[in-house]
Amino acid sequence: MFNKLSQPLDYAEALLAQFSSLSRLADGAELVGHFIQGVARLSGCELVQLYLLDATGTRLELNTECLDGQLQFRDPQSLSSDYHTEQLLQFSLCQNRVVCLGALSDSVHETRFLPARATPWQSLLCVPLIDPGGSVAGLLLCASVQHLDLHGAAESLGYLGAFVLGQLHQLHQLQRLRRPAEASVTSSLPSGISYGLIGKSMAMRKTCSLISKVLHSPYTVLLRGETGTGKEVVARALHDNGPRRSKAFIVQNCAAVPENLLESELFGYRRGAFTGADRDRAGLFDAANGGTLLLDEIGDMPMSLQAKLLRVLQEGEIRPLGSNDTHHVDVRIVAATHRDLKQLMEEGKFREDLYYRLAQFPIQLPALRQREGDIIELARHFADKACTLLQRDPVRWSDAALDHLSAYGFPGNVRELKSVVERAVLLCESGELLIEHFSLHIDPPSERGRINLRERMEQIERGLLIDCLREHSGNKTRAARELGLPLRTLIYRLARLNVQRGDFNG
Known about the structure:
- The chain has 506 residues and is an alpha/beta fold.
- The protein has four domains: 8-176, Beta-Lactamase, CATH 3.30.450.40; 215-364, 3-Layer(aba) Sandwich (Rossmann fold), CATH 3.40.50.300; 370-442, Helicase, Ruva Protein, domain 3; 453-505, Arc Repressor Mutant, subunit A (Orthogonal Bundle), CATH 1.10.10.
- Helix content is 42%, strand content 14%.
- It contains 19 helices and 15 strands.
- It has helices at 8-23, 28-43, 87-95, 154-178, 202-214, 231-240, 259-267, 284-287, 303-315, 341-346, 352-358, 374-390, 399-406, 413-427, 445-448, 453-471, 476-483, 487-496, 501-505; strands spanning 47-53, 60-67, 70-73, 99-101, 123-130, 136-144, 221-224, 249-253, 292-296, 317-318, 327-328, 332-337, 361-364, 396-397, 432-433.
- It has a six-stranded antiparallel sheet, sandwiched between helices. A five-stranded parallel sheet has the order 8-9-12-7-13.
- A hairpin with a 6-residue loop joins strand 1 and strand 2.
- Helix 9 packs across helix 11 (352-358).
- The chain is globular.
- It starts with 7 loop residues before the first helix and ends with a helix.
């Protein structure tokens, strides 16, 4: 079957022996080394490489290599280890597809990631490796100077690689249990700076963790959150840190264009399709081919266009206005909305099948009031940018001004904060930002103190319930489960505190 194992039975026995041997190893480096050397024996290849995604999920790094029987662990810090320009590796990684090539020396594929040698490489196999969470976490690559049929080994080697990743995960969990109790779990979560985002709060770290899990997958992402939470910024982070970063990132607000124009904007048109169409025009799907298209305010897309968008998601094909022919496009779609799409489905204003295609990987963006500590960091960032734009020296912040910002709820979220800070910088002439430079309405302590303890507790409880319902898109059953309440109790408290649907669907 394979050049070093002539009989299928021999290969199956060797594979089982490899599983058994790996299951007894308790050291991570030893486990990976035995795995790579075992794959070299099973496949008969002179080269076996293991690539893994880094902690942020943004960079593919060469972890281990076995070349002509010599095992080498690679230090990603000592070499250029971001393989985002290697199309073969990125295709296998992002599409979760096995790549098997023969007659490699005569092909047009770029293989700069393979070690140079006098005898050219002829056979190549690239297998995505799935981690215990079900995500693609890396690649196993086999290459030979011989003409080998490696495709038959792909499935078994993929299972073996997934087994090794599972073993590594268990070893990592054991190491975490042995750490001192004061070690923080949050240290493993990426901060916003990993993706060019501002914020180190727990809410932002969780958001960045979700971003890292979907960066290298082909899934459609649905960004949900209140107005001004930075949905376009997150969409751009998904694009700029993913494998499509070298291609176009295009934004279309579905609520900003009339229905009859939106279709031609998205799909393009052919000459004569309608009055005034005097030439062919490519649409945004064509312009974003190979890149990312952000469909903002997707909840406002007309029903007539939702069916055409569904076809793009299902078939990867578009048909311009006035044309009878379809053509293929390779576009990653990111959708964003501040509206409750499930409520729109119930009202018959949004297609149920489209919703489930868009929400393959939903990300709920936190409101600014949920991002403890991020207000001051964001405010300083916006002030510095404003000073650069105005070509003036950086401004200082008074403690009173920072306290003033921290005490405000910012219903307009990050967008409102940015506007407020930019206005304050314009008003500031002394070089120091003071309270009077901000036009925020905050009740003075004397007025807030008139509320008795019961009223204050009800305000806090009402806010917690609203935030939880927003996080779960208005689903009371899931909210009750997270809060540890019976559903009837939650419904009773919502009625007692006068929480209306509009409070958590806005």
